[in-house]
Design goal:
By secondary structure, the protein is mostly helical. It is about 65% helix and about 0% strand. It has one domain (about 10-435). α6 (about 60-65) packs across α8 (about 105-135) and α20 (about 345-365) packs antiparallel against α21 (about 380-405). About 45% of the residues are buried. Pfam families: GT87.
């Protein structure tokens, strides 16, 4: 932060963020409008839900996870009916279900109220995430946050699940790290991991850049606070509701290949090895190979990569090798893709692929059992074009980011004279360890 910015009154510093906040609120409102066909009763008819492209997990899980009568993790239900999310999301669901029960006596009315309250919370998280992203990007690239505020893929996917909560926490973590507030960054990282598991990939990004710069104390402080925050929110459930708490981890381990994953294509087509081997093992090995490649790139690049670039590559690798790739996962990647490489052409191409997948998955489900409405849906080959559209467009963005890392003069962020707007202690830090120094 410059001296001029530090001395500016709070109100003056907040003014540039007001339009972004309003546009993000408009994006949140549009996301609500997209789901109005379901909100007005369509979600009680599965065909109508898919043909109106308004599916959400929020309403059906109110009934299917016993939120109407019991509390997550402590519910006396079969193991496969326990809430399959980490504890922060489970507690968000619990608090909102309490409020819904207090406001309404009828269970159907409670579920609708639960949906509305959840949407309000997620809309607030979207606005907060956009404002935090703008602060992370810095004055010269503040408007890049519009991609997160109102891009079509974000609007379409915003209220499928609770992912925007983790998005706001992740952006808060990045801003705290940028401001060199390692304790706060650690707490927010720990809470983010206890909300959705994907922020765990950012630990690897921080570690690699720490290894290159030898800024160990900030890294260790952050990791200590992250571990502490994660333990604080998880320990009560581990002690008093073990079965409910471990449901997420068992589910993640045991679930098979699911919608959106490239592994589903290989299985469906019967490819040797890729379509026959255990998907959990394939995914972990593939992710490990990609992470090793990212590590080599980070330590061998002629100039230290930016933190957002490594976070993006790690998160994209995680998504591409996962057993499931739900439509809402686009919310994970948008802010990091934009921070890593704010070039509109590949971003627009990827957004188009995400929108095509959003349409394709619901049309494909129409043609699958139990509905089997081939007259309304699409077939296997058409669906898999959407699956590979996402894979290919994200791979293109990853290739451009790798090119920017190997040729820093091509990095549009660094062309403005910035070293690492998200880097915090890494910003302008000299190299202490590179692969070149090992063989020197």
């Amino acid at each position: 932060m410059t001296v001029t910015e530090a001395r500016a009154p709070w109100g003056a510093r907040a003014v540039p963020y007001l339009p972004l906040g309003l546009i993000a609120a408009m994006g949140a409102t549009l996301a609500y409008i997209v789901r109005l066909p379901c909100r007005t009763g369509g979600w009680n008819d599965q065909v109508a839900t898919y043909t109106n492209f308004c599916y959400t997990d929020i309403y059906p899980l109110y009934f299917d996870r016993a939120l109407a009568t019991q509390n997550p993790y402590f519910a006396d239900v079969p193991f496969d009916k326990q809430v399959e999310y980490p504890v922060v999301l489970g507690e968000v669901m619990q608090v909102l279900s309490w409020i819904s029960r207090w406001l309404e006596s009828d269970q159907v009315a409670q579920a609708v109220r639960f949906y509305d309250l959840t949407v309000i919370l997620l809309g607030i998280c979207l606005v907060a995430g956009v404002l935090l992203m703008a602060a992370v990007a810095g004055p010269s690239r503040r408007w890049d946050a519009l991609w997160y505020a109102i891009s079509p893929a974000v609007v379409l996917a915003a209220y499928i699940n609770w992912d925007l909560v983790a998005g706001a926490l992740s952006m808060g973590m990045l801003l705290a790290w940028k401001q060199r507030r390692q304790g706060l960054a650690g707490v927010l990282l720990g809470l983010a991991i206890a909300t959705k598991f994907y922020p765990l990939m950012f630990v690897g990004a921080l570690f690699l850049l720490t290894l290159r710069t030898a800024r160990w104390r900030p890294f260790l402080v952050t990791m200590g606070w992250a571990a502490g925050a994660w333990i604080v929110v998880n320990a009560p459930f581990m002690i008093f509701a073990w079965d409910g708490w471990r449901r997420f981890y068992v589910f993640s381990q045991e679930r098979g290949v699911d919608w959106g994953s490239p592994w589903l294509f290989f299985q469906h087509k019967g490819w040797p090895v890729l379509g026959e081997a255990d998907v959990t093992t394939l995914g972990m090995v593939s992710l490990l190979v990609l992470c090793v490649g990212i590590a080599v790139l980070t330590l061998a690049a002629p100039r230290r990569p930016r933190l957002a670039q490594i976070c993006f590559l790690a998160l994209a690798a995680f998504m591409m090798t996962n057993k499931v790739w739900s439509p809402q996962f686009v919310l994970w990647l948008v802010p990091f893709a934009v921070l890593a490489r704010p070039n509109w052409k590949p971003l627009a191409l990827w957004q188009f692929a995400e929108m095509w997948y959003f349409v394709a998955i619901w049309l494909y489900l129409l043609s699958q059992p139990p509905l089997e409405r081939a007259d309304l849906g699409i077939g296997d080959d058409t669906y898999f074009t959407a699956v590979w559209g996402r894979v290919i467009t994200i791979a293109i963005m990853m290739a451009f980011v790798v090119r920017d890392i190997l040729r820093p003069d091509k990095d549009v962020v660094r062309q403005t004279g910035v070293d690492d707007q998200v880097g915090g202690v890494f910003d302008d830090a000299p190299d202490r360890f590179t692969l070149a120094s090992v063989f020197r």
